[in-house]
Amino acid sequence: MDSGTERNTSRIPRVNVGVTPRPQTSLPVSSGQHTGTTMSRVRPDPPRSARPVLQNRTGAVKRPFSTKHENVTETKNSALAPPGAKKAKPAPWDMKGKLQLAEERLLKMKETLESSSLEMEQLKKDNKRLQERNQVLEKENKIFEASLVSEKHLHSQMTEKANNLQIVCNEHECTISSQKRDLEHYQGLCAELQEKVKILEEARSSMHKNLMELKIVSSDHECTISSLKKDLQHYREVCAELQEKVKALDETRRSMHNSLMELKGNIRVFCRVRPLLPAEKAKNDSTEHISIANERSIDVYKGDKKIKNSFSFDRVFAPSAGQQEIFEDLAELVQSVIDGYNVCVFAYGQTGSGKTYTMEGGQEQNLRGMIPRSVDLLFDRLEEIKKLGCSSSVEASFLEIYNEQIRDLLDISQASKPCELRNPTSPGGDMVVTNLKVTTVKSADEVNELLEVARTNRAVAATVHNDHSSRSHFIFKLRIQTTNGETGKGTDSILSLVDLAGSERLVDISESDRVTETKNINKSLSNIGNVILALSNKSQHVPYRNSKLTHMLQPSLGGNSKTLMLINISPREECVEETLNSLRFAVRVSECHIGQARRKLK
Question: Is the full-model pTM beyond 0.70?
Answer without folding.
Answer: no
